[in-house]
Amino acid sequence: xxxxxxxxxxxxxxxxxxxxxxxxxxxxxxxxxxxxxxxxxxxxxxxxxxxxxxxxxxxxxxxxxxxxxxxxxxxxxxxxxxxxxxxxxxxxxxxxxxxxxxxxxxxxxxxxxxxxxxxxxxxxxxxxxxxxxxxxxxxxxxxxxxxxxxxxxxxxxxxxxxxxxxxxxxxxxxxxxxxxxxxxxxxxxxxxxxxxxxxxxxxxxxxxxxxxxxxxxxxxxxxxxxxxxxxxxxxxxxxxxxxxxxxxxxxxxxxxxxxxxxxxxxxxxxxxxxxxxxxxxxxxxxxxxxxxxxxxxxxxxxxxxxxx
Length: 308
Description:
Layout: E1 3-9, E2 23-28, E3 31-35, H1 41-47, E4 55-59, H2 65-68, H3 71-78, E5 87-91, H4 95-105, E6 114-118, E7 123-127, E8 131-137, E9 145-151, H5 160-165, H6 172-178, E10 183-184, E11 190-191, H7 193-196, E12 205-209, H8 216-221, E13 227-231, H9 239-245, H10 250-259, E14 265-268, H11 279-287, E15 294-295, E16 301-303
Parallel strand pairs: 3-4, 4-5, 5-6, 12-13, 13-14, 14-15
Antiparallel strand pairs: 1-2, 1-16, 2-3, 7-8, 8-9, 9-12, 10-11
Helix pairs in contact: 10-11
């Protein structure tokens, strides 16, 4: 099962000609999840030829303009096709007011259900049969949350030789064992899945953290991420400014990646003061703490494979 993250915009505060505002699309086979929706989101969706029509849910970190100004366009765009499935929108208080006011002022034609759920405490906000998405608190100048998508453990690998040695021939009974069902062998013996399946294998974890001051608690929330997309807005010489505006430096983002033992961390939401060439300063400072730190760029694609 594929898990891919598409960076639709990596900028903060204001869009630049080469840098749209913060937004990441996560594709998990047929499921599409959008994290934040800054200005320019539609442009990157089009340029990447992504099937925006099937976005299942949108997760908003907070209601500052650089994270939500692309949302009305996405809602109207989705109404241009036949859609019966609901679109879920999650975010802290004010998200519902923003969406409903935008619909009213812009006279939006919406032909599908929109279900808005506001987050007031850490909780699981969205889930499927083998994954869930959880929100947790951050600390910004207004209520802000981070998100993690975590897959449940997968069954262990099926051992066909073991099954045959226990009198279970190739065929439908193998499928039952792999689905967790007991079967009866040719000699009348009850064979359980644990007899022919290896140890459970871990799923994957994706984390999205932006617009927050540094908090040690964030590392606990994103522990063991296979991919951590994390704000790294300022360099060290702007640490005071970062503290005042409740943002993080690249070094602080790297500290979270290191302490959380994340397998991969890519920074996002850069201050517009840095040109693309100057972003190397952020990267260098982050790599002094977490050597595997990376920079995101608009329309960059991250594959998130299984560890095994």
